[in-house]
Design a protein that fits this description.
Immunoglobulin-like, 3-stranded antiparallel sheet, 4-stranded mixed sheet, 2 domains, 10 strands
């Protein structure tokens, strides 16, 4: 069964409060984060494939799951005495709201249109389009960083 990450996090808290490990899918869009609150302190955390999703530990009862690449992996969180607090799948999907996909032959380019359309590099874009946009983003970020430090 699939649910969105907000519902999954709420269900995780409800089930863990009853002493039952949660085994619910958490669906998170790529490049977005989803909070997971635990009712007991975590002592161990494992993500099956960190290339698909990352886990950021804020404290012993609050985690953030970040979608890194499309696909599915799993998250296991254990507490005191090795008790399983959470054991479920993390499914990383696309967030295509406001996105237009252009396809010319085998070349693909995505545009974020809110309200004007600008290139938005994504997995599956043609190499030329992806590299051109990411190089512009990197250059822009380094120029912005240099201006903040006074260089």
């Amino acid at each position: 069964m699939r649910v969105n990450w907000v519902k999954a996090a709420a269900l995780a808290v409800a089930f863990m409060g009853a002493g039952v490990a949660q085994a619910q899918d958490i669906v998170v869009p790529i490049d977005m984060a989803a909070p997971v609150r635990l009712v007991a302190p975590a002592e161990g955390i494992a993500i099956g494939n960190p290339a698909i999703a990352g886990v950021s530990v804020q404290n012993d009862t609050l985690l953030f799951i970040t979608g890194r690449s499309y696909g599915a992996t799993n998250l296991v969180v254990v507490g005191r005495g090795g008790r399983t607090l959470f054991n479920g799948r993390i499914i990383v999907t696309s967030d295509d709201s406001g996105v237009v996909t252009l396809t010319r032959g085998s070349e693909t380019l995505r545009l974020a249109c809110a309200p004007q359309c600008r290139p938005r590099p994504d997995i599956g874009d043609s190499t030329a389009a992806f590299d051109a946009v990411t190089n512009q983003i990197t250059t822009r970020a380094s120029v912005a960083g240099a201006s903040r430090t006074g260089n």
